[in-house]
Amino acid sequence: MLDTAATSSRTDRRPLRQWQAAALDAYEAGAGKDFLVTATPGAGKTAFALALATRLLGERRADRVIVVCPTDHLRTQWADAAASVGVALDPTLSNSVGPVRTDTQGYVTTYAQVASAPMLHRARTDNKRSLVVLDEIHHAGDGLSWGDAVAEAFGPAVRRLALTGTPFRTRVDERIPFVRYEEDGDGALTSVADFGYGYREALADGVVRPVVFAAYTGVSRWRNSAGEVVAASLTEAGTRRTEEAAWRTALNPRGRWVPHVIAAMDDRITHLREHGMPDAAGLVLASDQQHARAYAKIVEKVTGEKPELVLSDDARANQRIREFATSRRRIVVCVRMISEGVDIPRAACLAWMTSYRTPLFFAQAIGRVVRARRPGESATVFLPAVRPLLALAAELETERNHVLPPPDPGCDDLDALPPPERSEPGEEYEALDAEAEFAHVLHRGRAVTAEALELTEDDEEFLGLPGLLSPEQTAVLLSRRDQELRRRTGTPTDSSGAEPAAWEQAVVLRREVNALVARVAARTGEPHATVHVRLRTAVPGPPSATAPLDVLAARRDHLLAEL
Hints:
Blueprint: H1 4-12, H2 18-30, E1 34-39, H3 45-58, E2 64-69, H4 72-84, E3 106-110, H5 111-116, H6 118-127, E4 130-134, H7 144-154, E5 159-164, E6 169-171, E7 181-183, E8 188-191, E9 195-197, H8 199-204, E10 211-217, E11 219-223, E12 229-233, H9 240-250, H10 257-274, E13 281-286, H11 289-303, E14 308-310, H12 317-326, E15 331-334, E16 347-353, H13 359-366, E17 379-384, H14 387-398, E18 430-434, E19 437-443, E20 446-448, H15 457-461, H16 471-480, H17 482-488, H18 502-524, H19 528-538, H20 549-562
Parallel strand pairs: 1-5, 1-9, 2-3, 2-4, 4-5, 10-17, 13-15, 13-16, 14-15, 16-17
Antiparallel strand pairs: 6-8, 7-8, 10-19, 11-12, 11-18, 19-20
Helix pairs in contact: 1-3, 2-3, 6-7, 10-11, 10-17, 18-19, 18-20
């Protein structure tokens, strides 16, 4: 067995971030048996937990460390991190094996394993004075049986450290064990952290990278159960049902939205690699395995390089993640394997090609690309310009004391888009196509569109360097690249000099109208939606996604007159 005194001495020489040191001081100042730390994804919760573990082991206040985490992959990641500070944790210990190996100082397990054999883990906890680390403790509320099992298994622990990436709410009848709550006035309970460290603080400290959200719109077309062809823009879908159908159609791998956005992310990776991040990589998040496989083929076609494909039913999934984290490959495509806690520091771009939309999954996924390694790095998230995702992005940017609500009854923890509405058995919608175009950059909760700014060649060269361009300049550059991206992704263009087709003219006019609406909104301080409503009153007709050319031209001219 390793010498815990030597471990403590060795670990104490490792530099801690300021927040980690402050959290240790707070623990020593007033911690009882339980201590909850809320720290933004990417801030270094694992390092803090291990610093505390080595201190307690070295001072003989604990003799064993038990880490409980959400997934099997994280078991290995925790064990590797512990080994780097001299603590031996077994990530392979199963429920079929009784005692903990004598040549280790503890083990790493999952919430599912604890739920299947709580008394076994209780015996292991009771056998030695144990520090139990509950990573992403909100998972203990995934079901009453899980919470009960965690309470049963780790009741005898001498110390319990709970970790989470964001505050959370819990229903009164589904309390998570070892967490203090306060009433929120809406019939739920809000977790109370003993120490908190948010994204804004982490960004100011240089602990995480700044995030740029690049939103892409476009018109989706689908056939509904009545046989009618419907067209709607992601940003002007109108009703929630239409928005969901447009979103679902945009994510269809047979359309043009997905390859266009993948090309945009690949372009960003190239610029990052040319300007200070030579190993920059991107993540593509898919809704299911079928889409993930299709997206992987699109990535290979667009970039010329086969991506890493990580699927949960692949026996080598965890190994593939580890290999990608240390390789020079550009893009990994996955479903849920790369979410909370998975550490790929070189990942700096994320393509949100999933219908998942819960605050928890969004925050955890964004956390995969914000882990800072050195000053000057930034992260870019490419996402559909739909209201649910833009609201989550704005919430993350402004950090308005956001607290995760409890999941709605009947929904899973991801809240994927519901299946299409069916009028009769066997009838359902059919995705036809979806075009993509850059909409805006989200900066400090506001949409920054491509204004008519003058940019030098040096400006364009410096896009890969964060902080040197304004959000407005970044938006212009991303917009300018749309034409090149259309060529790369096979979107038809007409170079013969002939008059463009009517649908192509409509695309250009819609883009002009949207840009002018943004300029009017910036000048008047009105929301974009208000300007759109006023415009449709002044120039009557259908929404822009389905408006004829004469209506679009009239709306453009009306907006120009306002300016």
